[in-house]
Amino acid sequence: MLIKIILVALVLFMIVNLFMAMRVMMKNDPKDGPMSKYIGRRVFTSVIIVALILIAISTGVISPNPRPY
């Protein structure tokens, strides 16, 4: 259950960074900083999510669906 809470929190963090990057893009204010910072955080968060899922599956913490239907 803890791994699922961590994954949901990371997905929410990724969505927040998406909207922060959109805000920077729409404002086009040089004081806000580059949009690539927020996009980079999204990519890094995605890598962490995939790694956590793979580690959790390999250690047996979560089990994948045996049949896709």
The mean pLDDT is 88
- SSE series: HH
Give unreliable regions as ranges: none
Look at the helices and sheets and give the structural class: mainly alpha
How helix-rich are the residues, as a percent range? over 70%
Keywords: Membrane, Transmembrane, Transmembrane helix
Organism: Alteromonas genovensis
Transmembrane segments: 6-22, 43-63
InterPro entries: DUF2909
Description:
The chain is elongated, with a radius of gyration of 16 Å. The model has no long low-confidence stretch (mean pLDDT 88). It is built from 2 helices and no strands. The chain is mainly alpha-helical and 69 residues long. Helix content is 74%, strand content 0%. It has helices spanning 2-27, 35-59. The chain has one domain (2-59). Helix 1 (2-27) runs antiparallel to helix 2.
Short account of what is shown:
This protein has 69 residues and is mainly α.
List the helices and strands and how they pair.
Layout: H1 2-27, H2 35-59
Helix pairs in contact: 1-2
Keywords:
69 residues
